[in-house]
Amino acid sequence: MQREGKIHIYTGDGKGKTTAAIGLCVRALGAGRRIFFAQFMKDGTSSEIAFLRKSAPDRFHYFCRGSGKFIIGTPPPGEVARAERTLEALVSALKQESYDLVFADEIFGAMHAKLLKEEDILALMNARTGATELILTGRNAPQTARERADLVSEILCSKHYYTQGRPAQKGIEY
Q: Given CB 3.0 to 4.6 Å as the disulfide criterion, which of 10, 15, 121, 134 pairs with 128?
């Protein structure tokens, strides 16, 4: 019997959404699975991406076109185009059916920044077929996406040292 893939969402205001996705990525790579990992809103310089690329260059495919800059207000056209290219790459990866897991990291943040529309995310979710797992992360997952998903984990912030002024630390936050 062929395994059916599922749709996972990691959302909420707490630290650890991407970290949870990376943990799933490590687990899948350890089991010999192939991964397509795309990031919105980031620039691809985080420590975990460097590690995964070195660890499984033949099974970990990384795609990132973001500038890594926060977007407030109306996004510049270049940022919108980057997000659209990333979305197209995700849809293509799903259609190829050659990946076991497809990750859309910070896709909800891209929607919140007006780089994508809610219907873009739903179309991506509907493009998932067969045994491929689709993982979506970011704050503020819309209710329609939550309803469509098979698993939703809400990561809440009870306390965070950012509020005390500690900057992000390499190897911890990025």
A: 134
Q: How many CB atoms lie within 10 A of CB 135?
A: 24
Helix axes 17-30, 47-55, angle to 10 degrees: 10
Which residues are 62's β-sheet partners?
A: 37
Which stretches of 35-97 are assigned E, i.e. beta strand? 35-39, 60-64
| C-alpha to C-alpha distance for 127 and 68, rounded to whole angstroms | 27
Question: What CA–CA distance (Å, rounded) separates 79 from 66?
Answer: 7
Radius of gyration of the chain (CA): 16
- How far apart CA 164 and CA 166 sit, in angstroms, is 6
The correct answer on CATH 3.40.50.300 for the domain covering 7-164 is yes
Over residues 86-135, the pLDDT tens digits come to 999 999 999 998 999 999 999 999 999 999 999 999 999 999 999 999 99
pLDDT tens, residue by residue, 41-87: 888 888 999 999 999 999 999 999 887 776 778 888 889 999 999 99
Nearest by Cα to 7 from 117, 123, 87: 123
